[in-house]
Amino acid sequence: MNNILSYKYQDFMIFFTFFLIWFSVQFGELVEDSVAYIMVVSVGILHGANDLLILSKKKSDKKSNLKSIAIYLGIIALCILTFYINSYVAILLFVILSSYHFGEEHLGEKLNQGTLFDTVYFSAYGVFLFSLLFYISQEDVAIIMKELTGSSFSELQIQISLGISGALLVLMSAYILLTKKKTEVNFGRELFYFLVLAVVFNTSSLVLSFAIYFIFWHSIPSIIHQTKFISGDFNKKAVIHYLKNASIFWGISLMGLVGLYFLFPELNQFASIVFAILFAVTAPHTWVMYQMKN
Q1: 109 contacts 124 by C-beta, under 8 angstroms
Q2: Helix, strand or coil for residue 150?
Q3: How far is Cα 238 from Cα 49, in angstroms, rounded to an integer?
Q4: Nearest CA to 5 among 112, 109, 100?
């Protein structure tokens, strides 16, 4: 994402974040969650709907492309199997993978301190976000976790993950600053972003809080990066091309969502079904994004 587009989008992102904070104050949780589900099911799922096209762009020959597709489908099957065998482990893996993925998308073009350092930093960033959200919304997290897994994260576990990830971010950021390592990360701006997100998490419901970050801070920037990778540019024609190619997989995902809703009537929380779908697509999507950016 070039600098002009990046700064314009950051302004848009902050504006809509504050707008949705206002929205969450004005309306009840039912309205908040309904808007959140619409955002996640539309833009959220859409941002992972062109994975196979991206793989085909990375692999020029048919054999390599088929191998990549097989790996992609194998990861999905492994996720479903893991969820079937031990749903608690599956959710834990979802959080860990999403943590790295969120950090990679947000900081991937800015950090540039080497593979190991970046991987730990990305993961710490995401774990801190999830831990902050879970700490503020413990009751709602417990409801969804118990429905999906029969158990939940304890307050102590959340506090420990919040403390460790926060300490890692502070120490690693201090290392970059003190050693004057070259980086494009604006640490003051990132601290401001965390404060904004803390306000979001305190003001909005769990589902809307997750949706605000997932859509405006992650999915849309990811769609911009993917569009530029696929078409070589980001313009109206490139966006239409992206949407056309994504529509089939997006439709399949929606059918899967509806299928889960009827196959598992015991899941009373629609959020549980949405998170189950997100888990199934997060692992392969994270792998594809890693392939795209490397």
Answers
A1: no
A2: coil
A3: 15
A4: 109
Nearest Cα residue to 135 out of 155, 149, 152, 119: 155
Give this prediction's pTM: 0.88
Where do runs of H (alpha helix) occur along 152-235? 155-178, 187-203, 206-212, 220-231
Contact indicator for 226, 54 with CB cutoff of 8 Å: yes
Judged on CB neighbours under 10 Å (0-12, 13-18, 19+), 282 is buried
**Cα radius of gyration rounded to whole Å, the chain:** 19
> What confidence tens digit (pLDDT) does each residue in 71-130 have?
888 988 888 888 888 888 988 988 999 999 999 999 988 998 888 999 999 999 999 999
Nearest to 280 by CA among 36, 38, 45: 45
**Contact between 267 and 257 (Cβ < 8 Å):** no
**Residue 237 identity (one-letter amino acid):** K
Contacts of residue 127, Cβ cutoff 8 Å, sequence gap at least 6: 95, 96, 99, 161, 164, 165
Cα–Cα distances in angstroms (integers) from residue 94 to residues 26, 136, 272, in the given order: 32, 19, 13
Q: What's the distance, Cα to Cα, between the start and end of the chain in Å?
A: 16
pLDDT digits (tens, 9 = 90+) for 43-60: 888 888 888 888 888 766
Distance CA 228, CA 238 (A): 8
Contact 282, 94 (CB under 8 A): yes
Distance CA 115, CA 121 (A): 10
222, two tokens = 């990811």
